[in-house]
Amino acid sequence: MGELAWLGVVRHGESIGNLAALQAERAGAERLDLAPRDPDVPLSPLGLEQATAVRGWLREVPRPDLVLFSPYLRTVETGRAATEGLDLSWSCDERLRDRDLGQLDLLTTHGVSRFYPQEAERRHRLGKFYYRPPGGESWADVALRLRALLADLRRDHAGGRVLLVTHDVVVQLVRYLVEDVTEQELMELSRRQVIANASVSVWAADGDGRLAPQTFNDVGHLRAQDTARTAEEGVRAEPV
């Protein structure tokens, strides 16, 4: 099996779900006030501006041979805005979708503690990486589908340049898989650094033909385009 020459990963721009999570956490609410199902959550107006700013970054990097989006609306909207006018074809791969929170969907940390105290305790015992909410996915589950996707890309696009447009947990897990970090290292990295909306991360083949990190969670293109970052990006929709 070969290796990619270049792998770029973009997190979607600010969504109305991000705003609902911020509002709920500020208010100490138990649930997010959000009507659409998770796959149908669109970008906010700022999120669309952030996605458009990614286009400036794309003009400066090696032209991707393959562009894949998560099928969720916020990632498709991000990818379309970022690639508009660049003559890049794209397709969706469901293995890039966001982590499924199952019965805990739309609940804040406070809401989980109130309605599912046993789940809060179980998550504390198992840890974030292996904890699977009822009807949902653990980080390890997401890593399994990403591992399959990366294997397919290495087999079918060896030596190629691939761009992925996806979600924050997926970005963290791409790092876990590509850089071969441990569970403990990944959890510490995720505590220290929240993946910013419309951020870009890049790995490129080194002299040994292995993907090596070039930049991670970079938002310099937002500053270059005078585009604001999402307010209080440390607040997540994920309750556990």
Cα separation of the termini: 36 Å
Helix tally equals: 9
CATH class: Alpha Beta
CATH topology: Rossmann fold
Silhouette: globular
Rounded to an integer in angstroms, the radius of gyration calculated over CA atoms is 17 Å
Give me the secondary-structure category. alpha/beta
Instruction: List SSEs in N-to-C order.
Output: EHHEHEHHHEHHEEH
Which percent range describes the beta-strand content?
5-15%
Give structural attributes.
Rossmann fold; 240 residues; 6-stranded mixed β-sheet; alpha/beta; disordered C terminus
Task: Give an account of the 3D structure.
With 240 residues, this protein is an alpha/beta fold. The chain contains 9 helices and 6 strands, in the order βααβαβαααβααββα. It has helices spanning 16-27, 45-58, 73-83, 109-115, 117-126, 139-156, 168-178, 183-192, 220-224, and strands at residues 6-11, 66-69, 91-92, 161-166, 200-205, 211-218. A 6-stranded mixed β-sheet has the order 3-2-4-1-5-6. The longest helix has 18 residues, at 139-156.
Question: TL;DR?
Answer:
The chain has nine helices and six strands; from the N terminus they run βααβαβαααβααββα.
Question: What topology does this entry show?
Answer:
Elements: E1 6-11, H1 16-27, H2 45-58, E2 66-69, H3 73-83, E3 91-92, H4 109-115, H5 117-126, H6 139-156, E4 161-166, H7 168-178, H8 183-192, E5 200-205, E6 211-218, H9 220-224
Parallel strand pairs: 1-4, 2-3, 2-4
Antiparallel strand pairs: 1-5, 5-6
Helix pairs in contact: 2-3, 4-5, 6-7
